[in-house]
Each structure stands twice: as C-alpha cells, then as structure tokens.
Amino acid sequence: MARQTLSAYNRKRDFRKTAEPRGKKQKRDQHRFVIQKHDASHLHFDFRLEHDGVLKSWAVPKGPSLDPADKRLAVQVEDHPIEYGRFEGTIPEGEYGGGTVQLWDRGHWHPVDEDAARAFRKGKIAFELEGERLQGRWALVQMRGPRNKSGRNWLLIKEKDRYVRTGKAADVAAIDESVESGRSLSEIAGGDAPEWRGGKARKPKVKKKAAKKQTARKRVAKTKAARHRAMPGFIEPQLAKLWDVPPEEDGWAHEIKFDGYRIQLRIEGGEVTAWSRSGLDWTKKFPEIVAEAANLPEGIVDGEVCALAEGERPDFPALQAALQEGDTAGLVYYAFDLLWADGEDLREQPFETRKENLKAFLPAESKQKRIRFVPHFISPGESLRQSSCSMGLEGIISKQLDAPYRSGRSDIWVKTKCKGRQEFVIGGYSRGTAGKSLGALLMGVYDGKELRYRGRVGTGFNANISALLGKAMKPLVTKTSPFVGTQPDKTSDVIWLKPKLIGEVEYAGWTGDGLLRHAAFKGLREDKPAKSVGGEGKAVAKARIPKAQSKIALSNPSKRLWPKDGVTKSDLAEYYARMAEPLLRFAGNRPVSIVRAPDGIEGQTFFQRHHNRGTSSFIDRIKLAGDKQPYLVVKDAEGLRAMAQWGVVELHPWGSTAKNVEKPDQMIFDFDPDAAVPFTFMKKAALAMRDRLEDFGLASFPKLTGGKGLHVVVPLKPKAGWKEVKAFTHALALAFEEADPAHFIAEARKAKRKGKIFVDYLRNDRSATAVACWSPRARQGAPIAVPVTWDYLEKQKKLPVYSMTKLDAALKHIGDWDEFEASRQVLTKTMLQRAGA
Fold first, then answer.
1. Could you tell me if residue 698 is inside a domain?
2. Are residues 51 and 103 in the same domain?
3. Of 49, 174, 195, 290, which sits with the fewest C-beta atoms within 10 Å of its C-beta?
4. Are residues 350 and 462 in the same domain?
C-alpha cells in the first residue's frame, strides 16, 4: 500500500470556504474507524480506518453489505486527518467533494494480523469492527490491475460470523440516520446546526451573566441551544468507551476516574431524588448527601458517590460496606456534569460550558462537606493517567470539550485504565498453533534463590520481536523446568530455558492463584541480571509480587471434560482462576451443591452436596441443623481449583450465606420454558415479572442460565425466613398462571407443562439451589450462566448463549451486576399481604 501523507488532502481543499478540518498526522493510533455517508456528485460511503496517525480512506459506491456474497468495490482515496472522523455537515458546492456528509457509523477496529502495516502492504487486511452499526469480521482485499493516484482499487467484504445477514436484512446502506445527531442527509443539508464538532471549530457562543452577587441559579449560563420545558425525571447517563491510551489531539479534557456508584441528583422544589446508573431510586441510601443537595438550586447533576480511604483515595469495597451497614455519613459526591438548571436543558451545550455552569451552580467548597466539584485538566492525558496510577487510582476519563451530553456509550467520552508493568524472568515458551511460531512466554520471579512461576504472556509479539526472542532463546534451551514449586499447566509443547532473559510485561492484574491476567510483552531488558527480578532486588517492588501460589496439583490436566469442545481440566482450572472474584461473589461462603464429571460430561455425572472423607481440605464445610453430614462450602480461589481437580462442572449455591443460612439474601424466579415456547415470549414473561416486582418496590436482575431458561433474581436483606420468601414467590407464580393459564403454570409436573413456561418458585426453599452466575454448565458447547442487564435482554431477538471458550465476548458485551449488593431490600409483611401470600 502506497504510503500517504496529508499533503494531498490539504492541497485539494480551500479551508477558507469549507468547514472540513485541516488536521495533522497524529503520533498514536487508537484504532478508530468511521463511515460517512456522502451525497456529493453521486451518493457513496467513505470507509476510514485509523492507521499510522491518519485515516486510511476508501470510497464505497454501494456502501457496506452484511452478506459475504456482496463484494463491494472500495476505491482508495487520499488519507484524511483523524479529526475528519468527527465531521458532519455540508461541503460547499464547487469545492472538492461538495455535498452533504453524515456520520453513518463509528467505533474501533482490530486487525486480525498483529502486524497491521504488513497486512496493508500485502493488500489483504482482515479485521474486526466494533461499531454502533457494523460488527464482526470484515476484510479489505486489493484488486489486481492499474493503480489510481492513491493506489489500486479494493473490495470490502463481510466475512462469515454471527453478524452475517442475507436478503433485505443485509442492505444496511439504506439506513439514513446519523449516529452523532440522529439527522437524515436532507436534514443535515437544510439544518443550521454546527457543521463540525471537532477540535475548536465553530462552537456556539455562550452568554454569561457576570454579576458577582447573583445567586448560583442566576449565574448558570444560558445558550440558544437550551430548551425550556418541564424538568425530566431520570436521564439515561452518558457512558465512556474503553481505550488503550488517552487521546492526544487538542479539544479534550481529562478527569480522574472515580471508583464508586454513578448517581444522578435531581433537585426540584426542595425535593431531591438520587437515581442510580440504571434508573433505580436510591435516595434513601445516601441521606446525608441528599440533605446537602436540598440546599442547591433546582437542576440535575451527574456524578459519583465514593467512600474515601487514606489520602482521599476512592475505595469501592469500603463504599459497599458503608451501604450494607448503613454507615453513610462519610460518603462524598463528586459532581462532574450539569444536565439541567434554571429551567434550561443544558445537554446540547458543549461540555466545557456545562462544567463552567456546574462550578457556578455549586456553592463554594468551604460551604459544603459532601458534594464536591470535579476539576478537569487540559494537559496531556497520558501524563494525568500516569499520575493517577501512581496514586493508586483507577485511571482517567477523557471528554470532548465541545461535545454535547449524549446518553449511552460513545467516543465522546473515553476511559483509560491503569495497568501494571513489571519485569519477569523468562523460564520457557510454548509453540504457536502452527507448531513453529512463538505461542506464549512462561514468566517467573525470584523468591530468594528460587524461581517461582507467575504465568503466561501470549500477546505483544510481532514478526520482528518473535525473531529477536527466538535468537536470544535458542542458546538457552534446557531439558528441565527452572521453576520451583507450582508448574505451568499444559507443558507438553513447552521448551524450557535457562533463566537468563528478562522481559518487561504490561498486565491488568492477578488471578486468585497469583498468575498474570491479560498480560502483553513489551520488550527485553538487558541492563540487569535475571536474579535481581524479585526477592530482595530493587527491580520489583515486593508488594507487586503475588505470594499466593496454588498447592493443588492437577492430575491428568489434559483430560477433556467437554470432549467435543476440547475443554480440558486445565482449561477449567484456568477459567475458575480467572473468574474467581465474580464466582465467589455469588457462590462463595454459601452451602453449595455441585455437579461432578470426572470422566467428562459425556461420561457419568453426579450431584453432590455433602462433604465426605474424599473431599479436598481446600473445600470447607458447614454443619446444618437437621442433617448429619456437613455441606460443602467454597471460600477462596484455592477451593475453586480443588473443584476443578475434582471435575466439578457446575456450582449451585443456596440462596443464603453460611453465616445466616435460615435467612435468604435473594429470591429467584426460574422461567423454565417448554421446547415449543419461543424466546421472545419468555423474554416478555421475564420483563413482566420485573415490572410486577417493581410494583412492590423490589429491584431485580436477569440471568442467562446457560440452558434454555432465564432467572429473575431479587437481592434481599436477610430479614425474612425461608417460609415467607417461598410463600411470596409462590403467590407471584400463581398470579402469572391465573392471569394466563394457556402460557404459564406454577406446578412442577412435566405432563402439564407442554407449550407453557413453568414459573419455578421452588428455588426459594431451604436447601434448594440455583446455578451460580459465571458457573459452567455440563452441556455441549461449555456454556456458562451469565448475569445480564434488562437493557441488554430487551434488545435480544434470540436466546444468547456464552461459553467458557468465548469468555471475552461475555465480559465485553454484558458485564456484571454492578448494583446488586447495593440494591438489597427487605421483604416486608405488607408485601406478603399484597401478594396474597
């Protein structure tokens, strides 16, 4: 691919006449992509990929298609500046490209080949798109034949994956709506909105009232864009996308990222409502903050509630503890945006103006104790990120200064998190899938004179780095492992090395077993001896070396527990290690029943709840009244590893904790459909249960079970007993059956369930269990039970299934129940009476 600069782009445009950005080449790539629908001399789509500091660009006459059979011509054109990715408006007639430009899609792209530059040169670029409209695998393939001024013509092709569509569904090019403004091409052509939201161009001027003695309410700036109307209730919050590094170009502000609960304060007529991120009314959870907010002018403020540790550092576990114990006097509210004030909707104002308004809206810091203004910084984002990391903070949020407030997740706000960086000794490596290439490095640190294994690093290698490592490692090959104690799993393809080389590694954290998480290789270090890495050496801070190492060896680690899916006992142990924290959150420190498959799921499986003589000492026990044998309890990551060694393929905890077994802290409605019931109807049933529970003032959370059903889970404070919880759930299940007996049944007998959904309330009995969030399932495909949000569930047209082998997809698309713990409620006598229990 011919190397391009921005000289051709700049030469073709008269920037005195066009609002297009001049721009300059950037130093770092964020792997952004943008598609602009362009109604010029002929209607076409401009497809742009960020690479090498510019937007590589192609004109696609017919636009993209979701059908792999449609190979769309893509004519390579001159490179465009990064700033062009935010351009929407009209290019004057007579100018180059004169016509209307619409922001049709945007997001991030990820090359399949780690060496993207080589893929460009070869003329075949395979990549994944994560856009607001386009998703999944795509390819750009260079055609043979004569070049134009910018290069040869290409083909844009959708590759086969779950996002493929055929027929009319594939013709997404017919969509005529901007992802930025929601406008059609004709509306953009005839509108008077700002033509460019990038950099510093053409921001609307804001009129400010400057009298010093005015009240905070009168000092809020007003603009022509502000709209007078009644103050709304809950406003869906704006969310940030995750980037690897902060944006470097002009026009961005950077704030500290707070580790707390996102809260929207609505103040009207002296009354204050505190909304959670998902729109739950959390006013009663923060009485001190709400009382202080009552003194503010009328408005809607966006911010974060935090508990502070030493040095004013936000501490999320302390926040959860404060809410559970009702000790909220020490909590603070960090205000970072103002959405409404003085009867004005401020969301269309630029962020920079909204922050000025917010500062005027809040009283002086000396007059407030709990509500604090969040400053922002215009300095380089990476410098602020590094400073925040050094202080033990989570990272930073970067926001476009001239952008409006947009509900939902977009690139207007981006977050970059702190990552660990450390040196490790290379003790071996595994081969890649081809058998010859480098697969992963096996890393360790010294503990005194002994080298301790710390995990694998399987990314960060391009062709040059792989060649450099291969040359350095070749003379160090040895026959035995240099690691003392715990050894790596799956060593059949490992080449052991004498521990002489030091590699620098970037990582996201540690597993419960003290192994690296999400690690990437950054380079070799040749300036120090290997034995200085760890122990008493100054090269690594001792606090950053995980001491917890598993004492549990896996017998037959290559045993395939899910034979058709190739998932081994070792894979199961790695999954439990990676997911230890969320798994233990829902299954830890509770009586738990398990499904064991020592010979794999195609062999004999059996259910076990009792602790017996053959049980590992790493699995705890609890003695319960009415049963002679103790029950199983998992307390930590070692217990989960013991479960993997035991061939445990499912975890089914009680609805109460080991400390308070007679008082359930959750109730579950299990929607179990007959095979003939479509998913869309089951989804509607779950949503109806959510609405019914909200009538009682109860928040609920949906869970994909990894099978054909759905769970609706209600977090409870452990006050009511099993009898009351079962009676309440039974009453609601019967109400569903009575309202629609053709589709619902509250009776367990399968003979009566044909064509219906069994609303199973029996999960709410003492000793009854339900599959835990993030537990694997003993089914083909190695599926997992996954917590989801109601918004996510509502958008699904078929039952989503996630698996152990595609865990990143689950973590990326759905996440966890952030507000579950803080949403615990008391099941009251009044609720029981209303339900007829």
1. yes
2. yes
3. 174
4. no
Q: Residues 397, 299: one domain?
A: yes
- Cα separation, 453 vs 484, in Å, equals 8
Give residue-wise pLDDT tens across range 618-654: 899 999 888 888 999 999 998 999 999 999 999 999 9
Beta-bridge partners for 716? 825
> Do 256 and 342 fall within a single domain?
yes
| Contact (CB, 8 A) for 526 and 519 | no
**Residue 128 near residue 45, CB atoms below 8 Å:** no
> Do 566 and 641 fall within a single domain?
yes
**What is residue 206's predicted lDDT score, i.e. its pLDDT?**
32
477 φ, ψ to 5°?
Answer: -60, 135
**Could you tell me which of 393, 288, 824 has the C-alpha nearest to residue 305?**
288
DSSP 58-122: EEETT---S-TT--EEEEEEEEE-GGGGGB-EEEPTTSTT-EEEEEEEEEEEEESSS-HHHHHHH
Does one domain contain both 339 and 382? yes
pLDDT band at 601 (very low <50, low <70, confident <90, very high): very high
Q: Is the pLDDT of residue 819 over 70?
A: yes
Identify whether 797 is a catalytic site residue.
Answer: no
Answer whether residue 499 is part of any domain.
yes
Strands 153-158 and 371-373: unpaired
- In the numeric block, the tokens 């696609």 are attached to 60
What distance in Å separates the CA atoms of residue 132 and residue 148, rounded to the nearest whole number?
A: 31
Catalytic annotation, pick one of 257, 355, 415, 703: 257
pLDDT higher for 138 or 487? 138
Neighbours of 505 (CB within 10 A): 23
What CATH number has the domain bearing residue 322?
3.30.470.30
Report the side by side order of strands in the sheet with 701-704: 744-745, 757-760, 666-673, 710-715, 701-704, 786-787
400/265 same-domain check: yes
Distance CA 658, CA 656 (A): 7
414 vs 255: CA distance, rounded Å: 11
Helices in 310-441 by DSSP H: which ranges?
316-325, 351-361, 381-390
Structure tokens at 463: 């062709």
Residue range 334-348, pLDDT digits in tens: 999 999 998 889 999
| 300 shares its domain with 356 | yes
Pair 686, 712: CB distance under 8 Å:
yes
Predicted pLDDT of residue 561:
95
Q: What is the pLDDT of residue 114?
A: 60
Q: How many domains does the chain have?
A: 5
Q: Locate 107 and state its tokens.
A: 């997001």
pLDDT at 521: 87
Within a domain: 223:
no
Strand partners, 83: none
Q: How far is residue 436's CA from residue 768's CA, in Å, rounded to a whole number?
A: 51
What was the pLDDT predicted at 542? 27
The CA distance from 62 to 470, in Å, is: 46
Residue type (1 letter), 537:
G
Examine residue 211 and state whether it is found in any structural domain, yes or no. Answer: no
**Domain extent for 630:** 560-653
Task: Give the mean pLDDT of the chain.
Answer: 84
Report the distance separating Cα 628 and Cα 607, nearest Å: 18
